[in-house]
Write a structure and sequence with these properties.
The protein has one domain (3-166): Peptidoglycan recognition protein-like (Lysozyme-like, 3-Layer(aba) Sandwich). Helices cover 24% and strands 20% of the residues. It contains 3 helices and 8 strands, in the order E-E-E-H-E-E-E-E-H-E-H. The strands form 2 sheets. It has a 6-stranded mixed beta sheet with strand order 1-5-4-6-2-8, sandwiched between helices. The longest helix is centred in the C-terminal third of the chain and has 18 residues, at 122-139. 40% of the residues are buried. It binds zinc ion (2 copies).
Length: 172
């Protein structure tokens, strides 16, 4: 598994401490939605993944989601180069699943849109399974893998990724 540490992606420090989660029932999968460059999955494009993750953190910490988050809202972020960015990490309460739904599941984001890059490639799916396994091993995540739309009114994580979740979220 290829983890990008917070130091490596130049994450800002969280503005206060995380709320600790002893364990969860599992993991919920998210996508960025919106327009993601169609060529993001090309081998030379990974620097743009790093830029995207930093931009999402800045947006979350500056109130772009309506409230100011202490950090990126996700526990981990996966890109189409089979790399996994450390977000809040294991045993931290995410801020992504919807009010009242963050204690039940960790939140893992896929860099995937609803225009441009919309179909997950195999490397993205492998990275998601890497993240799920990591959160099981290090964060006591349970066996459930669900989509953001399970229990919350949203299109997230998009139809292609949600179909993969419903098929069992297995390695391609
Ligand atoms: Zn979502
Ligand atoms: Zn990448």
């Amino acid at each position: 598994m290829d983890v990008i540490t917070r130091a490596e992606w130049h994450a800002k420090k969280p503005s206060s401490g995380y709320t600790r989660l002893a364990s969860t029932r599992g993991v919920k999968i998210h996508y960025t939605g919106g327009k993601v460059p169609a060529d993001l999955a090309e081998p030379g494009s990974h620097d743009r993944c790093v830029d995207m993750v930093r931009a999402i953190q800045r947006m979350h910490m500056s109130g772009g989601r309506g409230e100011t988050y202490i950090d990126l809202g996700y526990n981990m972020v996966c890109c189409p180069h089979r790399r996994t960015f450390m977000g809040r990490g294991p045993h931290a309460l995410p801020a992504a699943n919807g009010a009242g739904l963050n204690t039940g599941h960790y939140a893992v984001l896929a860099l995937l849109g609803d225009s441009g890059l919309v179909e997950p490639n195999d490397d993205l799916l492998h990275a998601l399974v890497d993240a799920i396994e990591y959160l099981r091993e290090h964060g006591d995540a349970g066996r459930e893998v669900k989509g953001h739309r399970d229990g919350y009114a949203t299109s997230c994580p998009g139809d292609p990724l949600y179909r993969w979740v419903r098929r069992g979220a297995e390695r391609p």
